[in-house]
């Protein structure tokens, strides 16, 4: 990563920064570039997910088929498998004209636009297979864009802007998701109100979503190639494509595993967000069980909850700039765990909209703080520009293990304990990650990352 401009290490507290300095960093050109790229990354997710499922249900597709469409999200969890190609291969014409990262970024965005347009031309009622194929193409091109954006963000931002860049990225990502869910549904309704058929309205709604990817494309054109990427390109320009891919794949894994306490660090990556994943799996059933309607839940989560997430993201950026990386991770880990107690309180209070809003706000706010700081840590682990994309994709895949697999037993725990005690247990499952954090800090893990001032 770029040389830091501060003298404090990752293991000691950094000098405190003022609110003015903490806010000013969000106006830095590099951070603004990352913000718009975050929007471009968040936009496609729902187009092959929740928004598509609404379209399919309105078209009369049966629930069993709709359920199988969860599998089209597989590329997001397996993207680390082709991340070495993104790290090592050149895109004809694009790499020469725009550089290593920007070339891949523009190429993936063009493919993403084409994939969304192809999905727009399908008919869920007549050809679910082609809908699945189109959705899979959208997910694959979208996850490829994510690989490049993550690498671009890590390599282009200096250490002093990493957390701010991640906060901006998270906020814009959520806005992109909101545009492709609620925004897309409003657009489809608007087209349908003009008198065209429902299928045509959905087609044009997806066409509009495809055009919004151009926001990321314009951003990529305005951006400049990261200096780290230029140096990495110069260092490997004489190697063959096969050699570069091999070095990216093997080097990304071997370099990380050769570090001191690598296994413990990987375990920490898996467990840090486990408290969120364990409770998040059961949040919706819990709210319905209390007697809230789907509209109550949707309105609070999409409205008040989104606002809390955005504010929490920027608060996380402030915390990470004000304190050392280890201290920031401790703060984020503790607050995101304790927020689960608001749901235990809600279980006692019962059906109260203001209590639900408070609980959702607390959970979203603290979760966003933890997310921003955690991803700043993941970024600090990816220090070699030869395979930034591969390492980051691998780490995010490991971070998803808690959400995808470890939290699968949450329903059994909730059924056995009842809701108030379940959310207390959600607090307790955070303890292993906090113990690992203290152990890694004492072992000098954060000092080994270099003089990081996040």
UniProtKB/TrEMBL annotation:
<dbReference type="GO" id="GO:0016020">
    <property type="term" value="C:membrane"/>
</dbReference>
<dbReference type="InterPro" id="IPR036259">
    <property type="entry name" value="MFS_trans_sf"/>
</dbReference>
<dbReference type="Pfam" id="PF07690">
    <property type="entry name" value="MFS_1"/>
</dbReference>
<feature type="transmembrane region" description="Helical">
    <location>
        <begin position="31"/>
        <end position="55"/>
    </location>
</feature>
<feature type="transmembrane region" description="Helical">
    <location>
        <begin position="170"/>
        <end position="191"/>
    </location>
</feature>
<feature type="transmembrane region" description="Helical">
    <location>
        <begin position="392"/>
        <end position="415"/>
    </location>
</feature>
<feature type="transmembrane region" description="Helical">
    <location>
        <begin position="421"/>
        <end position="440"/>
    </location>
</feature>
<feature type="domain" description="Major facilitator superfamily (MFS) profile">
    <location>
        <begin position="30"/>
        <end position="444"/>
    </location>
</feature>
<keyword id="KW-1133">Transmembrane helix</keyword>
<feature type="transmembrane region" description="Helical">
    <location>
        <begin position="104"/>
        <end position="122"/>
    </location>
</feature>
<keyword id="KW-0812">Transmembrane</keyword>
<feature type="transmembrane region" description="Helical">
    <location>
        <begin position="326"/>
        <end position="348"/>
    </location>
</feature>
<protein>
    <submittedName>
        <fullName>MFS transporter</fullName>
    </submittedName>
</protein>
<comment type="similarity">
    <text>Belongs to the major facilitator superfamily.</text>
</comment>
<feature type="transmembrane region" description="Helical">
    <location>
        <begin position="203"/>
        <end position="223"/>
    </location>
</feature>
<keyword id="KW-0472">Membrane</keyword>
<dbReference type="InterPro" id="IPR020846">
    <property type="entry name" value="MFS_dom"/>
</dbReference>
<feature type="transmembrane region" description="Helical">
    <location>
        <begin position="263"/>
        <end position="288"/>
    </location>
</feature>
<keyword id="KW-0813">Transport</keyword>
<feature type="transmembrane region" description="Helical">
    <location>
        <begin position="354"/>
        <end position="380"/>
    </location>
</feature>
<dbReference type="GO" id="GO:0022857">
    <property type="term" value="F:transmembrane transporter activity"/>
</dbReference>
<dbReference type="InterPro" id="IPR011701">
    <property type="entry name" value="MFS"/>
</dbReference>
<dbReference type="InterPro" id="IPR004752">
    <property type="entry name" value="AmpG_permease/AT-1"/>
</dbReference>
<feature type="transmembrane region" description="Helical">
    <location>
        <begin position="300"/>
        <end position="319"/>
    </location>
</feature>
